[in-house]
Design brief:
Length: about 325
């Protein structure tokens, strides 16, 4: 079987304030802003990308910060918790750090023999830190968080579903995931590559409230594929299985197809290439406002309408 899906690529969510978003993900969580661009469909709104030093697939959390956007509501038919991977030995460092920044957390909890903390960003977005010793990805030393404690990338993401059956069959029959663990109503799936960043957890929650989209809610989850060719292959298989993927869209840093899974969550398959160093060097990532070519003629107006943000964070 060709390996068509490697694991997570990115998660994209909505926020209500660009600077507060930077302050949380760069300032508190120590992620790197790897790209500052705009929503290609709404150029008066930023599209901010956070990740590891180079913006590796599987480390990227992105936001559309719509100023003043009303909060969403966590619930069924939604990705409810985005979980980052941290080294086991860093757990107490992170508990101290969250307290220091006034971020209330709950836990540590146990799940599938791993330990995790749970908290929210200022918009109520659900975030977890999973302490584990299986992650070989390097951490980024941003000067605030020593590399030995820093986030390695995503660990998993939790999808709350009223009914899991058809979502499970999409993951296992079409998307090359395997069920590797279950605990009460929680089911863990793993993509072929395996390991931290290649998991997705499906929570059976028939009595959940229905999720509402707004600030602090996830817009979609993207899975990684190696190439344009493997993307077309998985697209073909989605069609054959009765799904309705979009055509390939050029997102500058990757190419994307989108489709809705049976529980209503928007899925994307994104190519690993070309990556974030396509329009600035790795050292410069996130430092300048990058626009797709077709918006360059309108740069002055676009820049004037966007709020000023500092990527250095407080
Ligand atoms: Zn996306």
């Amino acid at each position: 079987m060709n390996n068509l899906i490697n694991g997570l690529h990115h998660i994209t969510a909505l926020a209500s304030d660009a600077q507060k978003n930077v302050d949380f993900y760069v300032g508190v969580l120590g992620l790197r802003m790897v790209k500052k661009t705009i929503n290609f469909d709404a150029p008066d709104v930023y599209h901010l990308y956070y990740g590891d030093e180079t913006g590796s697939p599987g480390s990227i959390l992105t936001f559309f910060p719509y100023a003043g956007l009303t909060r969403g509501r966590r619930g069924g038919g939604q990705l409810t918790y985005s979980a980052f991977s941290i080294p086991t030995a860093s757990l107490s460092y992170w508990m101290d750090r969250l307290v220091q920044f006034g971020v209330p957390y709950s836990g540590p909890y146990q799940r599938f023999n791993e330990t995790y903390l749970r908290f929210e960003d200022f918009d109520g977005m659900g975030v977890e830190l999973v302490a584990n010793s299986n992650d070989l990805r390097p951490g980024w030393d941003n000067g605030k968080i020593p590399a030995e404690y820093s986030i390695r990338g995503f660990y998993t993401a939790t999808l709350n579903e009223f009914n899991i059956d058809r979502t499970v069959s999409l993951l296992t029959d079409v998307m090359q995931h395997k069920l590797i663990a279950e605990e009460q109503d929680l089911f863990r799936f793993e993509a072929l590559n395996g390991g931290p960043g290649a998991y997705v957890d499906v929570m059976r929650s028939p009595k959940d409230v229905r999720a509402l989209q707004g600030a602090g809610s996830v817009h979609h989850i993207a899975f990684a594929t190696d190439s344009d060719e493997s993307q077309l292959e998985i697209r073909e298989q989605l069609w054959s299985a009765g799904y309705n993927p979009t055509g390939v869209l050029d997102r500058n840093y990757f190419h994307s197809i989108y489709y809705r899974e049976p529980g209503g969550i928007l899925f994307e398959i994104a190519t690993n290439p070309p990556g974030f160093a396509v329009d600035e060097t790795v050292a410069e990532l996130g430092s300048a406002l990058k626009l797709p070519e077709w918006y360059e003629p309108r740069r002055a107006k676009i820049e004037a309408e966007l709020p000023v943000i500092s990527a250095l964070a407080k």
